[in-house]
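Troubleshooting: if your tokenizer reports a length mismatch, compare against these two reference records.
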Amino acid sequence: MALTALAGFATFARAMPPDVEQRLILASASPRRLDLLRQIGITPTLIVAAELDESPLPGEMPAALAARQARRKAEVVAAQHPGAFVLAGDTVVACGRRILPKAENSEQMRVCLTLLSGRRHRVLGGVCVIAPDGRIATRLVTTQLRFRRLDAAEREAYLVGGEGLGKAGGYAIQGRAAVFVQSLNGSYSNVVGLPLQETELLLRGLGYATF
């Protein structure tokens, strides 16, 4: 019997029979997630973005949001494409209990950078894999970061490049914002968009051949 881990623990069921077709659908249009998967030799058969309202529920905590959204995305796409492995991820940036938005404009980027300047924050990555037979495995990965103090000129210079647009927390660690990071504890790839070690274990645990 398969169990689902929603708070950082993954339970793996029996492996799929060797004759099962290895079709993998990435339930995300994020180019970062695709690049990360290719980095470890995994190329999805198909990319299908799950169109969902990603707003938090009233009173929902950051970790719960990341886990819920990853599972919802996987379930929506799995229903449309039965018989395939489906992988979904969701990234939430949180400062304390506050969930930072995916910055849609320069003002939202400015608010995020001002809040993160000189402070610790968390990047929570929810990952969900659904196997062809319907088994589900999930994982929640937390990375702790601290930004150095940013002066107004640095923040404004970063806004000009627009790197943080569409990014949770208003920054992209794989770009110029890398110099803002004073310390990082946990998975770097989780901050980029997908925790690779945990994702590979989920896929392999459900029978997807990763090597």
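Reference record two:
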Amino acid sequence: MKAHEAAGTARQAREAEKHGTVGAVALDQAGHLAAATSTGGYTNKPEGRVGDSPIIGAGTYARDGVCAVSGTGKGELFIRHVLGHEIASRIAYLGESLETAANHLIAHDLQPYQVGAGLVAVDAAGHVSAPFNTDGMYRGWVTVDGEFFVATHQQVVPVR
């Protein structure tokens, strides 16, 4: 990324060159929801930058009875939009499905900024959503019935 910055080509850098986030969400047998996000932040970040991962409600958020969310992307925008909390609020107050609420944030609210973003989320019923606006995003999940799924791009593959 330092070479990209020096050459003035940082905007053309691949997503994999910019950051590497690992996010996890879970719904346990008792109905409790949890979220975790581990990130080094984006590469070549300004000194002293604090991203969205440690700010509950932004890149990481869980509310029992509603949903759990872990996001990856431009943290400053996740903080401004309080991404995780906003998804939970759209579900709780507008009655939206997890899929609708998560897609709204990724495809609509963040669209004007033209930044790569994605998330993984699970709701209180065990529905999973993992929208992204980049070429791909590594993700996987297990359903309440014990079915495993993995994906890197648009196609989702069941694991047998």
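Descriptive notes for reference record two:
- DSSP finds five helices and nine strands in the chain.
- The two ends are 38 Å apart (CA to CA).
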